[in-house]
Amino acid sequence: MVVSSDGTLSSTEFCLAAAVFSEQWRKFNSALPQWSWVPSPKRPWISHNKEEGYLSVENVILPELNEEGRRDEDLIEKEECSCAEGDEFIDAAVLIQNDGAGAHHYDFHVVYSASYRVPVLYFRAYCSDGQPLLLDDIEKDLPLNSVEQLTRSRWLFITQEEHPQLNRPWYTLHPCGTSEWMKLLLRDDASAAQVEGIPMDKYLISWFSVVGQVFRLRIPLEMMNLGCT
Amino acid sequence: MVDQGKESILQFAPFQSAVDEGFWHRLSSLKLNKLGIDESPIPITGFYAPCSHNQVSNHLTLLAESLPPESSEQSFVPAISRGNRNRCPVPGILYNTNTLEGFQALDKQSLLRAEAEKIWEDINSGKVEEDSSVLLRFLVISFADLKKWSFHYWFAFPALVLDPPATVVHLKPAAQWFSVEEAESVRTACNDWRNMCSTTDVPFFLVSISSNSAVTIRHLADFEACQREGHKVLFGFYDPCHLPNNPGWPLRNFLWFICRRWSLQKVHFFCYRENRGFADLELSLVGEASISNVQELRNHQNMPNAVGWEHNNKGRKTSRCISLAKTMDPTRLAIAAADLNLKLMRWRQLPSLNLNVLSSAKCLLLGAGTLGCQVARMLMAWGVRKITLVDSGKVSMSNPLRQSLYTLDDCLNGGEFKAKAAVKSLARIFPAVEAESVVMAIPMPGHPVPSQEENSVLEDCRHLHDLIDSHDAIFLLTDTRESRWLPSLLCANANKITITAGLGFDSFVVMRHGAGPLSSSDEVKAGDVNDLSAEVGTLSLMENIRSQRLGCYFCNDVVAPIDSTSNRTLDQQCTVTRPGLAPIAASLAVELLVGILHHPSGILAKAEFSSSSDSGYEQPLGVLPHQIRGSLSQFSQMTLVGHASTSCTACSSTVVSEYRKRGLDFILQAINHPTYLEDITGLTELMKSAGSFELDWDYEGGDEDEECVEI
């Protein structure tokens, strides 16, 4: 089964590709946290039993860019209730920590878009204590050339959309250009692997090799061996 | 690594809290839909997992599913599923107050003691052996400010205090304590424990090492059996902490339990930590704690002291506050969505779209009727936020059908003032709009003013002058010709972008006025020139030098505006038009404004036609015509140009300079004596010299260029 020439894929093909993607990731990319499949809850008024869901990897701490620049108070209004009450007892057995806001954690979901017929990357970022980060803060985490690419590119830009399952605003790489660049990418990948066409279940690997770059999440070379089934 | 032999106190790294946004969303909806003002404590479930990163500790997390499910849950919140290796459930309790004062007034000491008491009882009753997660029972106090979308909260992880504190005999990485065979066996045993659904989320266990280095993981209840078998036993637990010299918080209550239950003076413990889903014996620690007064503790009747309120990330013991306004506040979400829409247009189709100029343009709409309502909506769709509506009327029963901002409610009780109702309606559509209303009638020539009303009319003129000065673009959307005269004059005077839309029964005109005749420095001083006609001559010369201006609404007229409404029957007084006209004309008016704002010459832009090549600059928005006239009966539309007339009653330099010289006196005179305007502009002369001929509204005078282009 070969990828269609217009760069899109069907919902069933997405599920298959997701399974292959997470399995290959486990094999070749075990240094990073692993993807898991989150099935969509069954809606009682829909009759078919087709499996639907999305890929999720959570609590990813992005590979370090540089050591400078995480100011403690660059987050939004964090007022504190000054109702500090001590315990009557001074506790000698506790380690006082003063780590600041802590690392930035990222959650990534790969969700299928029925209207564009492509996968869409949804993501959000938050501090260790759960405070969500805004786009300005996220952009500071991304490598410089990602940010440039995003602002200039017609095909790859960040917008805020409502997550289709969780019904909360998440950031996403807008899918309107995906089928166009996937078309070109698959053609190039096929000729590089010297095959007629890339098998459908490798779609997500190709796709992620582009979108993952935005966050410095690389697909190792072995995983890119797309010619074999 | 800690030196052996020194009696240093065993210091525990505190548990750290993390609250997922989804928890706050769910709490908000629970509070709004179910709890109301009920402040009873809510049982919740926290989740944690052993540390899996050598530089970052794991947290006790609250998720959406931490709150009990509502019985008629519409959203698909998954129930807590057991057997998730990354989500060991821990029981907790939430006290959510209704006010900030209530939150601050909570007796934190006694709440902490109450939860510590439960742990104490569970230790004594044997509950811990059934469900060891009760050792980690926690407490949260919170106040959800649902107006500002901010949440104040504070976690407490109650820990029973050992007095005197336990000391460290040794503490080292597990790989250094186990022998090679033991290490291998431990890894396998732990991985098996973690891979089985029934045990993966059990956070306390025994590591039983037999004499031949075979290691098994057992439940706490098997301790006596392990002792009988003569095995070495370590007390193991999932350790969220990553630090090499400190065990995590769970060990505190665990030690108390071990003392109480088995009276061990020396406790060997195993801080279990992982990497990539497998046991990591470099990161995990094995240690030995010494509890000096263990016999005394065993017989301890009363509950020991408890500590555990969380320190914030600066090390201070105080509550925290998180603001979710940006992701929960519907107004902010609406603004973000609207901006996204326009940005997508710019990204995908129109890279030169200037969203800043649109969002900062201040638009004044004179008239809040069929045209006014539609223009306001279209402006908002383009991202214009600052809109002022001027209308003296009230919403009447027939209005809602054609005037898209009003509903039946606005008509009741005599009817709301249109300007005010329009502003409210705009805010309901888009909360971030900055809309203002002015309830005011526009003074009109041909409607003479009785002297007792003079002051209020002059006040209105002044007000209108100020409004026009303080806005960037003015839309003339009233329903009579004469009501457009004063605004046209004032706009010409202030050199503001002005767009007129007018409706016939089945035809419309939309046009942009040309630039004003005088720059601000062209002041005509009062005493300079006595002879009016000489003045007119000089000034029209200046005008020609100043290149041909485009005309205004009145430039094509050869009579001054007069009272067009009195002496007519009711149906003639109301403007009756085909309903489709107003939305078309209003939309064109707004698109015309957007075109002007993007044109490099702005108000001075020449008239453009689709076939012309005289504008070398290719506009992405298309051509910028001067006038658009359309006919519904033909479903046709054409663009026209009309240049400014030196005899115009509204925008000619004669009139504007007269206004600058004499101000409101001039206005009053024009209002009360309509022929005055014809006199000073020379129209009277023109009419006399022309003799008698039919004046055809659609017929242009001789000295104007005109191109008719069918679209």
Give a written overview of the molecule:
The complex is a heterodimer of chains A (229) and B (711). Chain A has helices spanning 11-28, 135-141, 144-152, 178-193, 203-211; strands spanning 36-39, 53-61, 104-113, 118-127, 158-162, 169-173. Helices cover 26% and strands 19% of the residues of chain A. Chain A is α+β, with helices and mostly antiparallel strands and 229 residues long. Chain A is built from five helices and six strands. Chain A has a six-stranded antiparallel β-sheet with strand order 1-2-3-4-6-5, covered by helices on one side. With 711 residues, chain B is of the alpha/beta class. At the A-B interface, loops of A face strand 2, helix 1, helix 2, helix 3 and strand 7 of B.
Summarize the structure.
Chain A has 5 helices and 6 strands.
Instruction: Please report the total strand number of chain A as a whole number.
Output: 6
Shape verdict of chain B:
elongated
Based on helices, strands and strand pairing, what is the structural class of chain B?
alpha/beta
Kindly estimate the percentage of residues of chain A that lie in beta strands according to DSSP: 15-25%
SSE pattern of chain A, N- to C-terminal: HEEEEHHEEHH
Radius of gyration of chain B: 41 Å
Function (chain B): E1-like activating enzyme involved in the 2 ubiquitin-like systems required for autophagy.
GO molecular function (chain B): Atg12 activating enzyme activity; Atg8 activating enzyme activity
Keywords (chain B): Autophagy, Cytoplasm, Protein transport, Transport, Ubl conjugation pathway
Domain Ubiquitin-like modifier-activating enzyme Atg7 N-terminal (chain B): 10-328
